[in-house]
Design a protein that fits this description.
Layout (H helix, E strand, L loop, with lengths): L1 H23 L9 E3 L3 E4 L7 E11 L5 E8 L7 E5 L2 E3 L1 E7 L3 E11 L9 E10 L2 E10 L4 E8 L3 E3 L5 E9 L4 E5 L3 E4 L5 E3 L2 E5 L8 E5 L16 E3 L6 E4 L1 E4 L3 E6 L9 E4 L2 E3 L4 E13 L2 E3 L5 E12 L2 E5 L11 E4 L1 E2 L2 E2 L2 E6 L2 E5 L7 E4 L6 E10 L9 E7 L5 E5 L4 E6 L38
Parallel strand pairs: 2-10, 11-13, 12-14, 13-15, 13-16, 14-17, 15-18, 16-19, 17-20, 18-21, 19-22, 20-23, 21-24, 22-25, 23-25, 24-26, 25-27, 26-28, 27-29, 27-32, 28-33, 29-34, 32-35, 33-35, 35-36
Antiparallel strand pairs: 1-3, 3-8, 4-7, 4-9, 5-6, 5-8, 9-10, 30-31, 37-38
Length: 465
């Protein structure tokens, strides 16, 4: 009996000793259970004066053994606008941090921002790297560097006007409710986050003017290199079924996934969208995609998009003095025509009326042989007219009417440099597009410069001065 008691006591002692040893040892497996309570720290504070804001996360060791973090590092180092504090100790890098079993360490990140600093980007980014047992995790840091109007999941529930006092930053989404109007006046800059669509169920009216500073710009909110030139930086502007009376004057829409997307005709016969002197540039999927909708565009440039104009499932369209062009680059792989027009989609053929006057349709460096494609299906109304255009095609579109077409002659754009991402789609001296247009009552161009009265204007959105 005594022997049994002694054996029992020894067994308990060994178990206690084993348990103690396990708690004192370190887990080295890559499968160690570690929780990091946030993958991004966002600082949405509006920095009117010197801003100083804390955010934090925890690194939790969920194992019955100690965990050693090989390193915990602020990537920007001493030059970062962020400061890091780990369990009360400040620094930019910590090595060999021990976390007890089922315990954690707190990591605090502070950002200090002076919004009056010159050339400060809108978004200040850095990251904290955590390494352990051969694993690497990163927590992103994201703060706003300038004073602006910040709207998260903004809904326009009554008529509203934006003026150019501060930039506008859209987070989450922007929705214009049915029967409401958002008016954006000259000079406004709208910067949109990567996951934030602009959705219009009511009306969007943009009142830009011809001078560069007075145009209204829509772009992604990454303004730092190299991201500021990336297509698909934000979703785009979507005009849904109930949207009506949308007018964009001197608007620039850049770097979206689908810059402008429309669905369904507006009741009453007026165009759902009017574009006057607009630039749609560097959209990854489509510059303008329209499903059985209606657009009237004048002096507009739709450039360097995956699909510049994709007008399908019928609709009503009028494009006058527009330049529709794509050069393949490291951003855009030019594999789709710059213009596709069709009365068909979703297994349905609908009425189509489209006219293209004094336009240029061109593409280079890609895989496209026919930059203008017109597709007819079924016996619905189908009127597609091209008057006074320059285009690049090997196979002339059928089912159309056309007059005064210049085919496969380079328009001789002013300056193209794809490696430097520089494009000027104005016309060189000697361009075949000069003085070859019809007189359709357009008296100025995309720059606000005059077009001739009583004489033949140039094709495209720019008039050679």
């Amino acid at each position: 009996m005594l022997a049994m008691k002694i054996i029992g006591l020894l067994t308990i002692s060994l178990l206690l000793l084993y348990s103690s040893c396990r708690k004192d040892s370190f887990i080295t497996s890559g499968d160690a259970r570690v929780t990091i309570t946030s993958d991004t720290l966002k600082y949405d504070t509006l920095f009117v004066t010197m801003g100083s804001t804390y955010r934090s996360f925890k690194v939790i060791n969920e194992n019955n053994q100690k965990l050693r973090l090989s390193s915990l590092k602020l990537f920007g180092g001493a030059g970062s606008v962020y400061k890091m504090n780990v369990d009360g100790v400040s620094g930019t890098q910590f090595n060999n941090i021990e976390i007890e079993p089922n315990d954690s360490v707190y990591v605090f990140a502070q950002v200090n921002v002076n919004p009056s600093a010159a050339n400060l980007p809108f978004i200040l980014r850095d990251s904290i790297e955590i390494t352990y047992n051969g694993k690497r995790k990163v927590v992103q840091l994201e703060a706003w560097g300038q004073n602006a109007h910040f709207y998260r999941d903004k809904v326009i529930t009554a008529n509203e006007t934006w003026n150019n006092d501060l930039p506008y930053v859209i987070l989450g989404s922007l929705l214009v409710n049915t029967n409401q109007t958002l008016t954006i006046n000259k000079g406004c800059r709208i910067y949109v986050h990567a996951d934030a669509p602009i959705v219009v169920d009511g009306s969007l009216v943009v009142n830009g003017l011809k001078d560069t500073v007075d145009r209204v710009y829509f772009a992604g909110d990454r303004l730092d290199e190299p991201y500021k030139n990336y297509p698909a930086s934000w979703p785009g502007i979507f005009f849904r079924t109930t949207a009506k009376d949308n007018v964009l004057n001197y608007a620039v829409v850049k770097n979206a996934y689908q810059a402008l997307a429309l669905q369904n005709l507006q009741t009453g016969g007026n165009p759902k969208l009017i574009l006057n002197e607009c630039i749609i540039d560097n959209a990854y999927d489509a510059g303008i995609i329209s499903l059985n909708s209606s657009i009237r565009a004048r002096n507009s440039l739709i450039s360097n998009c995956g699909r510049n104009l994709y007008l399908v499932q019928g609709g009503n369209y009028q494009f006058t003095h527009c330049t529709v062009v794509t050069y393949a680059s490291s951003f855009i792989n030019h594999k789709d025509p710059v213009l596709t027009v069709s009365n068909f989609g979703n297994n349905t053929a609908l009425a189509l009326d489209a006219s293209f006057r004094n336009c240029i349709f061109w593409g280079e460096n890609g895989l496209v042989k026919d930059e203008v494609v017109v597709i007819k299906n079924g016996a619905t109304t189908f009127n597609v007219n091209f008057d006074y255009n320059l285009w690049k095609v090997e196979n002339t579109p059928t089912n159309i009417t056309s007059n005064n077409i210049i085919a496969n002659q380079s328009p001789l754009f002013d300056s193209i440099n794809t490696s430097k991402n520089y494009y000027s789609f104005r016309l060189q001296t000697g361009s075949p597009a000069i003085n070859k247009g019809g007189n359709f009552g357009v008296t100025s161009d995309l720059d606000g410069k005059p077009r001739p009265v009583g004489a033949a204007p140039d094709l495209g959105s720019y008039e050679k001065q």
